[in-house]
């Protein structure tokens, strides 16, 4: 392996790549059909070695000027063995499309079914069928939610910043939801499509961007639900139907994506119902949900830096130039330098991952993010970017008003609570509370 530096960007070239390049240069005088046969043979060999890691692309060789970026991925040895066995089952049943041949995705489905391989395989099969029928794989390109600005007026929500471990923070102001006005702006069907589209955007853009910024694997969120003012008007039939539909999608097709949830401004009625329901939940699930009253600010600041927390939650951020925090879409996914790397990656990037068992010390490994094809403005060396524009992509610099501090390696927690469980819990509390103790709740 050798390395060189062009325009301030580190490029590493393996011996195999050098041999391929030399072979290509030495073969210029050979007949065209012999050269093509040689190239096809090498392509087949590379495809066999990667085994589902990269998609087939064009034959044009592209100079992938992507820097070396360290991304920590802490794995439990027992879980690795479980995923390996699960992968073999899926592959044998022809249930493993290349785009979903992902360790962490398979692990989430295993966790959702308590590592019962048969139940997880059935869940996985149903997920693939749903994605095919719903058109999920292409929903980012095919669906345009043009009414978003109006929808946000009646359902204030969105991603804003990251927590102290680099996970995206998702916020909903449930007390300001107006279901009747919402359905005058959009339909339930279109909102569900938007909901699915945002999940896909999280996995294709937000989680990869956060992983690059934090330099460790991230695929879960920290959620804040503000229930101030929640009452009858927020949870009529329309809202219940919408929640029921979303909770099925979240639980069945996007399991285990919640790291922790903070429910703030919870009144006496809410806490009463929560104390009753909490005992019925799995302890690992309930431990991820924190029900807080009006004095919640210090708890949020323990998990989220003040620069990443909106002012209305006790933080320092206002996003005044972007129409407010819930309209700003603030986060590593808004950093153009980070997103250049994200968009240059294949859905399954070629990675060299240093793995850590749960009894070893955490080690930061070097993960090389590569792609077979990059946008011309990045891959074309004749149009190389200036050093000032792409300086040190391994530690991306965000726009002036956004800071993403370098994070020390932290052991990733093994168990996450299901987003489905949380949503079922919250919707149940809302409905029961509204029906039984609405005056107290208000």
Automatic annotation (TrEMBL):
Residues 15-32 have a biased composition (Basic and acidic residues). Coiled coil: none annotated. Residues 147-321 form the CRAL-TRIO domain. Residues 1-52 are annotated as: Disordered. Keywords: Golgi apparatus, Protein transport, Transport. Residues 33-44 have a biased composition (Basic residues). The keyword Transport applies. SMART domains: CRAL_TRIO_N, SEC14. Gene3D superfamilies: CRAL-TRIO lipid binding domain, N-terminal domain of phosphatidylinositol transfer protein sec14p. It comes from the Eukaryota. GO terms for biological process: protein transport. Pfam families: CRAL_TRIO (PF00650), CRAL_TRIO_N (PF03765). It is found in: Cell membrane; Golgi apparatus membrane. GO terms for cellular component: Golgi membrane; plasma membrane. It is a peripheral membrane protein. PANTHER family: CRAL-TRIO DOMAIN-CONTAINING PROTEIN YKL091C-RELATED, PHOSPHATIDYLINOSITOL_PHOSPHATIDYLCHOLINE TRANSFER PROTEIN SFH13. Belongs to the SFH family. This is CRAL-TRIO domain-containing protein. The lineage of its organism: Eukaryota, Viridiplantae, Streptophyta, Embryophyta, Tracheophyta. The gene is LOC125514421.
């Amino acid at each position: 392996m050798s390395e060189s530096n062009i325009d301030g960007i580190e490029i590493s070239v393996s011996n195999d790549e050098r041999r391929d390049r030399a072979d290509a240069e030495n073969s210029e005088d050979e007949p065209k059909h012999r050269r093509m046969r040689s190239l096809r043979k090498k392509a087949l060999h590379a495809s066999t070695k990667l085994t589902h890691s990269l998609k087939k692309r064009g034959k044009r060789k592209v100079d992938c000027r992507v820097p070396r970026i360290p991304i920590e991925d802490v794995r439990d040895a027992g879980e690795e063995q479980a995923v390996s066995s699960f992968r073999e089952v899926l592959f044998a049943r022809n249930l493993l499309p290349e785009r979903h041949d992902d360790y962490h995705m398979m692990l989430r489905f295993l966790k959702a079914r308590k590592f019962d391989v048969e139940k997880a395989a059935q869940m996985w099969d149903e997920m693939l069928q749903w994605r095919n029928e719903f058109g999920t794989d292409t929903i980012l390109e095919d669906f345009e939610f043009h009414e978003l600005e109006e929808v946000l007026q009646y359902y204030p929500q969105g991603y804003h910043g990251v927590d102290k471990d680099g996970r995206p923070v998702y916020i909903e102001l449930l007390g300001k939801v107006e279901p009747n006005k919402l359905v005058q702006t959009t339909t339930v069907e279109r909102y569900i499509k938007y909901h699915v589209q945002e999940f896909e955007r999280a996995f294709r853009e937000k989680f990869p961007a956060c992983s690059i910024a934090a330099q460790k694997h991230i695929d879960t969120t920290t959620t804040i639900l503000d229930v101030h003012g929640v009452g009858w008007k927020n949870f009529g039939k329309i809202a219940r139907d919408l929640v029921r539909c979303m909770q099925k999608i979240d639980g069945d097709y996007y399991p285990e994506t919640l790291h922790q949830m903070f429910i703030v401004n919870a009144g006496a009625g809410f806490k009463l119902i929560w104390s009753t329901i909490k005992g019925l939940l799995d302890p690992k699930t309930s431990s991820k949900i924190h029900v807080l009253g009006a004095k919640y600010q210090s708890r949020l600041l323990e998990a989220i830096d003040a620069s990443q927390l909106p002012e209305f939650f006790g933080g320092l951020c206002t996003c005044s130039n972007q129409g407010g925090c819930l309209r700003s879409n603030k986060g590593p996914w808004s950093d153009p330098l980070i997103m250049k790397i994200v968009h240059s990656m294949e859905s399954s990037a070629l990675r060299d991952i240093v793995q850590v068992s749960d009894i070893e010390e955490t080690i930061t490994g070097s993960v090389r993010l590569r792609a077979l094809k990059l946008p011309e403005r990045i891959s074309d060396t004749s149009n190389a970017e200036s050093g000032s524009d792409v300086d040190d992509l391994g530690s991306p610099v965000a726009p002036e008003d956004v800071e993403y501090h370098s994070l020390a390696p932290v052991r990733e927690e093994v168990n996450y609570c299901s987003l489905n469980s949380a949503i079922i819990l919250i919707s149940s509390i809302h409905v029961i509370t509204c029906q039984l103790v609405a005056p107290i709740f208000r």
